Amino acid sequence: MKFNRIIILISLSALILSILPFLVNIFMPVTSGRVNPHWDNWPYDFNYYRSVITQGKNGQITVYDKYTSENQQGRLLRISYLALGHFSRIFNLDETTGYHIARIFLGVIFVF
To answer: Which end of the chain is more exposed for a tag (fewer CB within 10 A), N or C?
Structure first.
């Protein structure tokens, strides 16, 4: 029983530490001349995921890679991010906020 509590405490600590930079950026003003894009990992990954969320928010049911010049057909790829876009549209959230809310919510579910 004590071991389970330690694991839960470590997991919650990791979750809070991963969310902390996002929360600090929300509540602390950005100084003049600086921009905070709210990236939590590699910029290409985040921008790609955000483009998929945007496609879902626009009502699409298939994904197109916006970062290639190749001809492509829509694919059922990254469905979770596409669904997150539909969620963001329903609750009128921007893509970044929807992404981070999902991170927090799913992180808590994962811990428990």
So the answer is: N
Eight-state DSSP code of residue 29: P
In a domain, 53, yes or no: yes
Amino acid at 80: S
In a domain, 2, yes or no: no
How far apart (Å, rounded) are the C-alpha atoms in residues 57 and 59?
5
Give the sign of the dihedral formed by CA 36, CA 41, CA 45, CA 48.
negative
pTM of the model: 0.69
Structural domain boundaries enclosing 81: 40-111
Size of the chain, expressed as the number of residues it contains: 112
Q: What is the pLDDT of residues 48-104, one digit of tens each?
A: 888 899 999 999 999 988 888 888 888 888 889 999 999 999 999 988 888 888 888
Element holding 97 (H helix, E strand)? helix 95-111
